[in-house]
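Need tokens for this chain, all 74 residues.
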Amino acid sequence: MMKTARDFKMKIILDGLAKVSSSRPNKIYKDKFVYTLDENGKLCIFYGSDGKSLTYEDTALLNYRRKDVWDLLV
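Here are the structure tokens for all 74 residues:
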């Protein structure tokens, strides 16, 4: 497909998600979440927002400051 796209001077765009399920994540994401402190000072997963919208507790952000998380995404 890539060769045919290049022959027609087309570019391929891949869509990807920056969040994963927080209720039943795959085990490869187990230690790759962003964590925050709750109002009691307890460490918990930072749920589903990049800080610019509402947080949704069915998704969790991955820690993209880590190279291994970027490698996993790619």
